[in-house]
Amino acid sequence: MFSMAKFGGYLNERTQDFEGSAFAFLCDSSTIAIGSILGLSPVSTFVESGAGIAEGGRTGLTSVVTGFGFFIALFFAPIFASFPPWATGPALVSVGAMMLQNAVHINWSYIGDAVPAFLTIIMIPFGYSIGYGLISGIGSYIIINAFVALLAKVSRGRIVPPNYEDKTEWSAYLTRGRYKAIPPPWLRRLLRINAPELFDETSSIDKELKAQMTRSHDDLDCPEATDQ
Prior knowledge:
- The chain is mainly α.
- Among the domains are: about 105-170, no CATH class; about 170-228, no CATH class.
- Helix content is about 55%, strand content about 5%.
- Strands 1-2 form a two-stranded antiparallel sheet.
- α7 packs antiparallel against α8.
- The longest helix is centred in the middle third of the chain and has 25 residues, at about 130-155.
- It is globular, with a radius of gyration of 22 Å.
- It starts with a helix and ends in a 9-residue tail after the last helix.
């Protein structure tokens, strides 16, 4: 869903988040659980949705039309099942090409970011499973970066991999050379985090993000919106 939000142009470049992301992720995860209970395939946002976004799909009406098309296809299933794999292959190639567009944004200069990304990409087709690709990527990321962090800690920063300073930070928002984490609205409401604790009141960018946080509280009907 995050990738499709970025592909559709909904991602805020400063916060690296999109509007209503908390509710979107909750809705997505809930539909997966409900679909599993009912014995259905995962009802989720797939990367293949990039094909629909590229054709101009931006609202839920796109999914309604797609679902209606699948319903009609039930009556023609024997005919569709007779199609050879090479007839549908070009569509998968097109989707794969669109999926790789975001690979240019990967930090290939630092081994701790490049190797996990490469393993994720390469293990999905070779392992015949997206899950295997994610496991290899996340696992290698934890192992490599934990080892590098430990080595840097022990050596007091003297022994680090090449381009260590170019590693991708976890936090999204960069201000005055340092990254700040911006908790989602539901977490800020749960922990009662105040905006002044996160942002510099003299910074114009911080003021804008503080206003965004306030609007997020308003969306959640939070009574402390004006204070937080």
